[in-house]
Amino acid sequence: MTMEPLRIRQGRKKFDAMIGTGGVGSGMFFTVNGMHTIGREESRSGRIEDRKDYCKLHIVSHYVKSLLGNEFEVIAIGKVGEDDAGSELVREMREAGIATEHMMICSGERTLFSFCFSYPDGSGGNLTTDDSASSKLTPQDVHKAEESFARFGKRGIGIALPEVPLDTRTALLKLSTVYGLYRIASFTSNEMDEVKKGGILEIIDHLAANMDEAARLAGNRSKEDTEERTVSAAVETLLKKSHNITLSVTAGKNGSWIWDKRKLHRLRAPEVEAVSTAGAGDAFLGGIIAGISAGFGLVEAQQLGTLMGSLSITSPHTIDKRIDKKAVNNFAHSKGFPVCAALKEVLR
After folding, report:
1. What is the mean pLDDT of each run of 10 residues along the chain (348 residues)?
2. Which of 104, 155, 329, 343 is the most exposed, fewest CB within 10 Å of its CB?
3. Which residue, 279, 273, 292, 269, is CA-closest to 323?
4. Cα separation of the two ends of the chain
5. In the chain, what's the furthest Cα-to-Cα distance?
6. By three-state DSSP, how is residue 216 classified?
7. What is the reported pTM?
8. CA 288, CA 236: separation in Å to the nearest integer?
9. Nearest of 201, 247, 184, 210 to residue 18 by alpha carbon
10. How many other CB atoms are found less than 10 A from the CB of residue 71?
11. Confidence (pLDDT) at 223
C-alpha cells in the first residue's frame, strides 16, 4: 500500500530524523466471559480476539514514518528475540520504512510479549514479560548508533520510550544532549519517582504522559482533583527541574493537555465509537512528533496528535496500517474537527 505523507512546504520542516529506543514486541488480546474480577486461583473461559498488538517504539515510529514519508528518517534502536515473532516485527518495521540496522537479535532470548485481557465492558489489564530481549538493551548498544546522532545533530529528534531499561533510555537522552537533538521521553507511572530524583527531567525537552503518569509526577494527589489541577501540579513539578521543558498529557475521551512553557492548553477529542483504545497515546505522540518535525508549534501539533489518537481507536489493532495523510484529512472533515490553517495546508 502506498502511503500519502504530509505536504510540507519547502523550508518549513524543522527536523529530518528521529532516533529512538524503547520496547519492540507483540501481544495478544483475550476477552473473558463474565464481569466479575478474575480470582487468584480461578479458571475462566473466554476468546482470543483477532487483534494485533505492538509495543511503544514500533507504534510511534510507524506513525511518524507514515505521516512524514521518505524525506524523514526514522532509526530504531532495540532488541528482539531469536524467534519468529522478532523476525516478523523487524520485517514489518522495514516494510514501513523504519531503519533497522540498530535492531539487534538477542541470542537465546524471547521477544517482548504482552497478554492483554479484558472484560465484556472493555475494562481490563495486561501482563507483560520483564525478562525479554528488550530488557537486555544496554547503554553500550545505544552508543553503537552514535554516528547517527552526530549526523543529524540539531536536525534530529532523540526519543526514549518505556519497555527498555531506564539507564539505557537515559544514555539515549544524554547522547542526544551531546549532539543537540530535540529530546522527547515518556515513563511509566512506577518510574516517575526515580525519574524525579535521578536528574533525568533536566535533560528532556518534551515529556509525554497519560493522566495517571501526570498524577504520579505531581506527587500525592487527591482522587477528587480535576484533570486541570492534576496537569497544573505536574507542570509545577517540572518547573522545579527545568523551565525549558514542555509537556503533553493524554486524557482518553476527554482529549489532551499541552504545556508550552507559557500556558496550559486543552483540546477535546472528537467523538468516535471506540473499537480499541490500546496504543492511542502512542498514536497521539506520533502525531505530535510529525507536527513539530513539519515546523508546527506544539499547540498546532496537538491537533494532529489528537486526530491520530482518535482515528487509531477505530481500529482493533495498535498499529492501523491504513492511516496516512489522506485518512487523517478525511477523518477531520467527517468529524467537523477544527484544524488550523497550517495543518490544513499539509493535509491537502
Report:
1. 76 92 93 92 92 93 95 96 96 96 95 89 81 96 97 98 96 98 96 92 96 89 79 93 93 92 92 86 96 94 95 91 92 90 86
2. 155
3. 279
4. 19
5. 62
6. helix
7. 0.93
8. 22
9. 184
10. 10
11. 67
Any idea which residue has 523504519 for its cell? 98
In contact, 253 and 227? CB cutoff 8 Å = no
Whose grid coordinates read 472493555? 122
The number of helices, as runs of H, and strands, as runs of E, in the chain is 12, 14
Owner of C-alpha cell 480476539: 49
147's CB contacts (< 8 A; 6+ apart) are none
Residue 271 contacts residue 252 (beta carbons within 8 Å): no
In sign, the C-alpha dihedral spanning 329, 51, 274, 248 is: negative
Which amino acid, residue 145?
A
How far apart, in whole angstroms, are the C-alpha atoms of residue 261 and residue 95? 38
**Residue 314 grid coordinates:** 477505530
* pLDDT the model gives residue 177: 98
Query: 220-234: string of b/e by CB count within 10 Å (b at 16+)?
Result: eeeeeeebeebbbbb
Predicted local distance difference test score (pLDDT) of residue 220: 66
**What is the C-alpha separation between 39 and 332, in angstroms, rounded?**
43
**Whole-number pLDDT of residue 276:** 82
What phi and psi values does residue 53 have, to the nearest 5 degrees? Answer: -115, 140
Taking Cα atoms as reference points, which of 146, 133, 139, 166 lies closest to residue 55? 133
**Helical H segments across the chain, by residue range:** 56-68, 84-95, 139-143, 146-152, 166-179, 192-197, 211-218, 227-241, 280-293, 298-312, 325-335, 341-347
Helix axes 227-241 and 211-218, enclosed angle (nearest 10): 50
pLDDT of residue 245: 95
Report pLDDT for 200.
95
Q: Would you state the pLDDT for residue 149?
A: 98
Coil/strand/helix, residue 28 = strand
User: CA 145 to CA 176: how far, in whole Å?
Assistant: 11
> In whole angstroms, what is the distance from residue 128 CA to residue 163 CA?
9
Q: Quick one: DSSP state of residue 294?
A: T
